[in-house]
Amino acid sequence: xxxxxxxxxxxxxxxxxxxxxxxxxxxxxxxxxxxxxxxxxxxxxxxxxxxxxxxxxxxxxxxxxxxxxxxxxxxxxxxxxxxxxxxxxxxxxxxxxxxxxxxxxxxxxxxxxxxxxxxxxxxxxxxxxxxxxxxxxxxxxxxxxxxxxxxxxxxxxxxxxxxxxxxxxxxxxxxxxxxxxxxxxxxxxxxxxxxxxxxxxxxxxxxxxxxxxxxxxxxxxxxxxxxxxxxxxxxxxxxxxxxxxxxxxxxxxxxxxxxxxxxxxxxxxxxxxxxxxxxxxxxxxxxxxxxxxxxxxxxxxxxxxxxxxxxxxxxxxxxxxxxxxxxxxxxxxxxxxxxxxxxxxxxxxxxxxxxxxxxxxxxxxxxxxxxxxxxxxxxxxxxxxxxxxxxxxxxxxxxxxxxxxxxxxxxxxxxxxxxxxxxxxxxxxxxxxxxxxxxxxxxxxxxxxxxxxxxxxxxxxxxxxxxxxxxxxxxxxxxxxx
Length: 482
Fold this sequence. Notes:
α3 (82-93) crosses α4 and α14 (390-407) packs across α15 (417-424). This protein is 40% helix and 12% strand. It has helices at 12-24, 65-74, 82-93, 106-128, 157-167, 205-216, 224-230, 245-250, 252-261, 271-280, 292-299, 334-339, 346-357, 390-407, 417-424, 430-433, 452-457, 461-476; strands at 5-6, 35-36, 132-134, 145-149, 172-177, 180-184, 189-192, 325-329, 366-369, 376-379, 382-385, 411-415, 438-440, 444-449. The termini are far apart. It has 18 helices and 14 strands. It is an alpha/beta fold. Strands 3-4-5-6-7 form a five-stranded mixed β-sheet, covered by helices on one side. Strands 9-8-12-14-13 form a five-stranded mixed β-sheet, with helices on both faces.
């Protein structure tokens, strides 16, 4: 049985050299008894034989870079079995370089557990180190000096010291721990693996910090499990505010009740400006029931389908209540959703130009959509139009039918397949019924054409010109009903 003796205070190099020698001598893991040197320089129950010198013909192993990073973390752990665990993994990597990818392997699982513990200890050190300023000698200038004491679970001082160098490079500091120390003087970062003695760090700022902590403690947001998970009790003894925590926790419920009783009874300083603005605002005029105005107000609170959850607002129809022609589109787009008005975006502008070219006044038309809320998919800052499904069209048909009942148009122009489905419930293709009048109930006529957005999407210029002329001819049909 061979017995390498290590200091075991986070020095990866000493384990690496011993492991290389053992590997070169083809010593299997079960034939090595890794030992720690005690603080007095002797051995802890050491009775092993010296490790043989590397000989010719020894095994050389090339390991993955991931193993080196893993070993550098695990070697900082305080578990005495870490050296044997790492050597077992090293030995097995000779046969299987993909070993570390098998998370269910007992040795790999244990190694990951130790690595996670070291990483967590480093995180806690970065979070809970408290520096105290040391006064400079009288009459001596220079950089400010600070000292901190911390008690880590593992040998992580060397591993974590560069973080403090980057964070506090403008001051001189010393971090002392039972597992080593780190010092920065503005030029050189020095570390030591020797155990340090805890300095006396009490000063007058402790009481100031306690007062601050007691005043920012919010009992209404107290979560004991989360607090103790992020700041375990073992760190409390070195925090000046820690002795306040039990009392603050016990009195949390009473303090919440006290806070509620002391709720502000006087208005805030800006309250009078809000009141003045509210009083100057005109009260909305009441609208009679059974009118388009009352229907639009009711639709503004519509929650019949899920589209209202993402849309900015309901986009209801616009136009005279006795209009002879009703235009029905698909749904509001991005521009309409923001403006709250139908057909004001690119498709609406094309529609307006076509009306002007054919001599039709849009103000005489009632313009609406089959669906009253904008359906879209967010992609970064853009909102991409999505076609409403059959269920959403059916839910919104309730509003469209009431608009038709109130306006009582002679002609309804369905622009696109969604509008056609909303008005008929059928699934005819627009191309099959486009451009010809279709009789409806109550001596009403349905006329089908394409939606202006279809024309905007056509890539071929010749096809686009032809379709635009067809659309213009179909819009002229409206003049027969003015």
